[in-house]
Structure formats: structure tokens, C-alpha cells
Amino acid sequence: MTTLGWDERVKLAQQYAPYLVLFPEDKNLARPGKEVDQIGDYHPRGIGPLLERSTIYPGFWYSLKELNFAEIFNRTKRRPATLDNLAASHNPNDQLLLFGPSIPNPDRAWQAYFEILGDDRDRYPLTTYARVQTRLEALAACEREKISLGADEVGRPFFKPNTAREDDVSLQYWFCYYFDDWANVHEGDWEGISIFLQRNESGYEAIGAGYYAHETGTRRHWTEVERIGDHPLAFIAAGSHATYFQYVPEGYFTTIPALIIPILNVKLRINASSTRVDRVANEQAYPPLEPRVETLPDPIGPTNPNDPAWQHKKWLSFPGMWGTRIFSGLGYGGPTGPAYKGVKWHNPFTWVERNCGPDYLVY
To answer: DSSP code of 326?
Structure first.
């Protein structure tokens, strides 16, 4: 079996990188959570905007347990959110504090975001983080993490048990957003898509894709994915940043497993469900945007130890939350990073089979 090297991974990540259909990033428009026609949205610009003004805080209950009152009450004791400090964190209770309150203010977030971007948006360009993984590497990760797999969980319907091979490839594209402003609000947001490849005589060919939407997602065969050349179009929902395959004028009706408190815009960890609409932009009005692709050095990286790609290892290892906890964890706050998404990260073949249903618009 041929080993997939770093340079080939970078090439594949570039070749299939999605083009994003987004509402405009314009501070003069209403923030995405407003129920009006003319809205803007946050664009995925990597982790830079999240880190610029943030501090790392170990959390109220952890600090109380450790009797670390300085951490609770004295903000000067909190660590700056640098790459080195993220890499040094081993506490899953750590969280990035962008503003400080346990319920972030979405109007303040919208204003602060454009203050961070300033006039030079090239400082934080439109970015997607790509992770390229073979099936053999995914199986090894599941064994290492003690993730149980069914005998036939191979990534259906794209791969059948008798066609799945160890050199099948998943391309994960992760989008990092500054703020989630939807049915609930929280600092930081991680969403994405996966594309699945199989080797042929001339190299690789794409056979399917899964798009992430909240806790689940949808899937399509590659022949049914809207794209420009090899680049699939990803339609990003305003505020929630769930990813969809196409524009739908009335939006996407979704059911979220949680209790939404409308006045506070908070999603609680309670066994209930809330129905909301995800609005996506029309590619005719808002032409697709091409993000810069940063390939992640996982499961392998470049041979040169000084290659800048290795810097991504620092933030990938951060075990905490990319935003403040809400009500000390009772409500859903900032999310964990990609590497702490369980089977979604370790084996996207299986995750898409388990959690992504066929897109009802085409199947």
C-alpha cells in the first residue's frame, strides 16, 4: 500500500478546498442573529481573532476546588491566550475569555470583531484548516482512543464493505468563527465539512461529502455536490455557521436537542428540543469566496521541524473551550477544538455514516 506523504496531503487539501457562500462581512449590516432581511455574518478567519484579546481562565468551579481565589477574582492572574499557553494547557476546564460575562453580549461581539479586523483584513485572511487522513490512520486512531466500531461501519453509502480500502482518504475542512449568533449565542465556533476520496489508476477521485450542521449533518454523493471544478460550494448559515449543500430561499428547518431560553438566547443542557431556521446566502447575490488553506500536521506533518505548519500543533492540543462557559457549564458555551470532537475527528468515515443523513433535497 502506498504511503500518503505530507506534500501529497497538502496538494489534495488545496485541490478540493471548498468555496464558501457567506452573508457579507459588513459592520454596517445587522448582526446575523437579527431577524431582518439585511444581515451580515462572521467569516472564518482562523484562530487569530479569537486569540487577539483573550485570556485563558481555568473556570470558576475548578478554581474554587483548588481554592485558587486569585484566579476567580483577579483577572491579572489569567494567562494571555498565546499559542505557547494553549500548548501548555492540560486542564479541560480551561476556557478562552473573549469578554468575561457568562452570557456574552452579541452586539458587543459584533462591534469588537470589526475592531479586531480593523482596516487590514489581510492580517486575518479567510481561512480553512485542512486535515488529510487515510482510513488506516483513522482505524489506528479509533484503536488508540478505544472507540468501538461496527464491523460494517466503512462510511456508507460512499464506501461499501467490499470496496473500502486502507488507502481511502478523508479531507476534513475546519472553519473557525469568532462568534455564534443564532438561537443561542456563544463565543467561538467550529464547523466544517468532510470530502471522501478513493485511489484510482491516476491518483484520487472524490466520491462523496458530508457537511456538518450543529450536532449532525447531511451527505451527498460527489456527482450531486454543487462545485466549481473540484471545489465544492459550502453554503454557510448565518450566525450558526452550519454548512449546507445548496441555497434554499426559505432556509433550513433544524431541530436542536436542547432547551432554548429566548430572552437570554441561551441553549441549556436539558433533554428537550428547539426548532429554528438556518438562513443561507444565495450564490447569485454573494459569489463564492476562496479561503486560504492551512494543512494541519496531523496525523503526520512536514519533515522540516521548522516548517510553520507545526505551529498548528500548539492550538490543536488545547483541551479547553474556545469561549466562555455559560452558567458554569449548565448552558452550551464555547466549543471544544477539532481534536476533541471524538469520532468526528478520529474517524470521519464512521462519523458521517452515523450522524449524516442523506440530503433530502436530492435523495
So the answer is: B
What's the angle, vertex CA 300, arms to CA 11 and CA 213, rounded to 5?
A: 70
**CA-to-CA distance for 33 and 107, rounded, in angstroms?**
10
79-80 sheet: strands from edge to edge: 79-80, 55-57, 95-97
Residue at grid coordinates 464547523: 191
pTM flag (> 0.85): yes
d(CA 196, CA 168): 8
Give the pLDDT confidence of 193-231 residue by residue, as tens digits: 999 999 998 899 999 999 999 889 999 999 999 999 999
Q: Which residues pair with 210 in a beta bridge?
A: 194, 219
Q: Which amino acid is at 345?
A: W
Q: Is the pLDDT of residue 263 over 60?
A: no
Q: Which amino acid is at 25?
A: E
What value does the CA radius of gyration of the chain take, rounded to a whole number of Å?
20
CA 51 – CA 38 distance, rounded (Å): 29
Closest CA to 349 of 159, 132, 147, 131: 159
